[in-house]
Every structure is written in structure tokens, then in C-alpha cells.
Amino acid sequence: MLLGAIPAAQGGTAGAGALRDLASQCAIWIGPAVAYGPLLGEPPYADTLGREFSILTPENDMKWAPIHPQQFVYSFDRADALVSFAGKNGMTVHGHTFVWHNQVPAWLASGSFTRDEMIDILRDHIYTVAGRYSGSIAAWDVVNEAVNDDGSLRNTLWFSRIGPEYLDLAFQFAGDADPNARLVYNDYGAEVINAKSNGIYDLVSGLLARGVPIHGLGFQLHITTGGIDLQSFAQNMQRFADLSLELYITELDVRMQLPVTPERLAAQANVYAGILGACLAQPACKAFQMWGFTDAHSWVPSFFPGFGAALIFDEMYQPKPAYDALAQGLGQCATATANSVFRSKASATAQ
After folding, report:
1. Would you say residue 345 lies in a domain?
2. Residue 215 in contact with residue 106, Cβ under 8 Å?
3. Residue 117: pLDDT band with limits 50, 70, 90
4. Residue 334: its pLDDT value, please?
5. Could you tell me where the DSSP H helices lie in the chain?
6. Whose CA is closest to 314, among 333, 294, 287?
7. 279 backbone dihedrals φ, ψ, rounded to 5°
8. DSSP 3-state assignment of 74?
9. β-pair partners for 73
10. Secondary structure class of 254 (helix, strand, coil)
11. Which of the residues are catalytic?
């Protein structure tokens, strides 16, 4: 099989009762980050992805190092394949990411570029990548993880070489290159009201005040079966919604201490259900996205020794209680939505 020749999922369309069908009735997208390797080489991966989900995020293949490995060389094969798979399966794409302090290619990290040259490089990268996929990407994570835990700006390559203006420039370049995409700031550890989320609130408020095109905020949510304070999460989402921002759950996974037990699976399901419920209760929440969908392919075990099983399908692509919890929550939402529409039509007919 040629590089990038990923077939559509078997059947080509979602099955009855799939998460994507229920989510569409609740007016949200649902989906995972996607790895190119298993999508190419494991039929159950592609089949499950195409059947169950309505949006995908390239896990690595749109980051700087993979897609722009040399200063004047771009490598689009893998990203093209993921976008093509999405199109064949009636899915949309959440692009990830234009500006991040990790996975920066060596030529850029070690280069002796002036401030103006760095701005030109940033402009060229965003114009090239966003322009290539314009019309195929619903939303872009324009800037990723630019804020420290104390709310201050992280001292990244971009900050040190350009200054804080790099944030404005990145969003402006993205808006120029793809005027129809939703432009998102994405970060972790800022789900509840704390010093970091306060710093992000100040950051995005400033961008908006300066007329910078930013449309959304992404909450990553790499968490444990201990969950988070859902009341604080709801309050935090509301203050960003009050800025007229769209909200995205972007990278949810719920890791548990191994070994897996029925009690830990139940606790995990409750956490997934709680996050979904918070999203569904907030009209500004547009997508419920996870950092993967099967425990067969997850970043968690290598980064958190002793923890794992963080996703909604197990290593054999069998749905876990967390999957059932999402299906139940979406089903209740879909039923309520259908009932509301029925009542509205009945009222209109009676008048």
C-alpha cells in the first residue's frame, strides 16, 4: 500500500447508535486524536474510528517537526492521508498545532535567526499549512501550551525570539490563511479556576481586545480517575463563554492506576460522564475530543509509569464502561433534544 493510501472504514458510514450519531443530535462533535501508523496498518482501528466518531485530530502529523522537517521542505503525506480519511468517512478535522514549544525541528531550534526572520518563518509555516488544508479543517489549535502554571507566559522559543507578540501574529496569520476555520488557544491544567486559567483568561481577553482573531478555547483534560471539580469547571467554562468564545474538550483521557479492576473502570466511567455532562450543559461547548480512543495506542503508559487504560475502548477494541457512559449521556441529550423539537412543532401547529 502506498504511503497515505488509507482506505475508508468498512461500510463507509457510522452504524446505528454510534457515538457520532448521538452527538450530532446534541449539536457537538465527538472524536479522538489519531495516529497514522495504526490507521494505516490495523483495520479495527480504522473501522472503529470511522464508525464511531465525527471529528479527528492528527496526534502528531501536523506538528512542526513532522510536517516541516527542513526550512524549505514540507512533508504532507501523512497529514494528507488523515484529512483524506476524514473526508471519506464524513468526519471533520481539528488541526493541531501551529505554535508549540515541543516537537520543534532541529533546524529551527538551533538556527540563528533574527526576530524578523522568525516572524517570516512563522508566517510562511502557517500560510503554507493552513492554506493547504483550508476548507477541510473545522478548527485549528493555533497556539498550544503558552502559559505556565502560575499564569505567566512560558519562555518558549517563540517568546524568546519574537516576544509576546508572537501570539497575536500566529492568530493573525492563521486567520489570513484560513478565514473559515475556528482559531483556538489550547492548554492543560486550566480546566478549573486557578492561577493558570486566570492567566489564560487575561491572555485571551487581551487578544480579543486587540482585535486578534481567536474563536475558541481548548481544555486538554489529561486527568485521573479522581476527576476534577466539576462545579469549578462549569464556572470556568462560563466565564470564557461570556467572552463569546467557543469551548472545546480537546485531549481528554482518564488514566487509572494499574491493574485494571471493575471498581476503577466504574470510577473512570463516572469521570467521562461528568466531563461530557459539563460540556452538554454549556451551549458554547462544541466538541468532546479524546487523546486517542483505544488503550492499544495511548501515550499514558510511557509518560505515567504504573498508570494506563485511559481511553474508552480496551486494547482489543472492545467498548469499556466509559464508552457506555458516553453513549448513555449522549442518548439522554439526543432524546431531550428530539422531545423539545417535537413540542415546538406541536405548539406551532396548534397556533
Report:
1. yes
2. no
3. very high
4. 82
5. 19-25, 36-41, 43-52, 64-67, 77-88, 106-109, 115-132, 157-162, 165-177, 195-209, 230-241, 262-281, 300-303, 321-350
6. 294
7. -65, -45
8. coil
9. 70
10. strand
11. 145, 251
Domain interval for residue 142: 19-350
Is the separation of the CB atoms in 145 and 101 below 8 Å? yes
Least confident of 180-189, 292-301, 339-348: 339-348
User: Confidence band (pLDDT; 50, 70, 90) for 130?
Assistant: very high
For cell 406541536, name the residue. 346
Residues 34, 40, 45, 49, CA torsion sign? positive
280: its cell numbers = 452538554
Burial class from Cβ neighbours inside 10 Å (0-12, 13-18, 19+) for residue 209 reads exposed
Quote the pLDDT of residue 12.
Answer: 37
d(CA 311, CA 294): 6
Report which of 126, 210, 116 is spatially closest to residue 175, judged by C-alpha positions.
126
255 has pLDDT over 50: yes
pLDDT level of residue 336 (50, 70, 90 thresholds): confident
pLDDT reported for residue 342: 39
Given a cut of 80, is residue 350 above it in pLDDT? no
Query: How many independent structural domains does the chain possess?
Result: 1
Statement: residue 242 has pLDDT above 50: yes
Tell me the C-alpha distance between 72 and 139, whole Å: 26
pLDDT tens per residue, range 4-40:
456 556 543 334 479 999 999 999 999 999 999 999 9
CATH code of the domain covering residue 98: 3.20.20.80
Task: Give CA–CA dist 72/131, Å, rounded.
Answer: 16
Q: Let me know if residue 39 belongs to a domain.
A: yes
Q: Would residue 113 count as lying in a domain? A: yes
Q: Is the pLDDT of residue 3 over 90?
A: no
Cβ–Cβ under 8 Å, residues 56 and 36: no
Q: Does the N-terminal peptide bond of residue 259 adopt cis geometry, omega within 30 degrees of 0?
A: yes
Q: Which residues contact 154 (CB under 8 A, 6 or more apart)?
A: 101, 145, 146, 147, 148
Q: What are the phi and psi torsion angles at 307 (to 5°)?
A: -120, 160
Candidates 131, 145, 132, 140; CA nearest to 171 is: 140
The β-bridge partners of 319 are 313
In a domain, 245, yes or no: yes
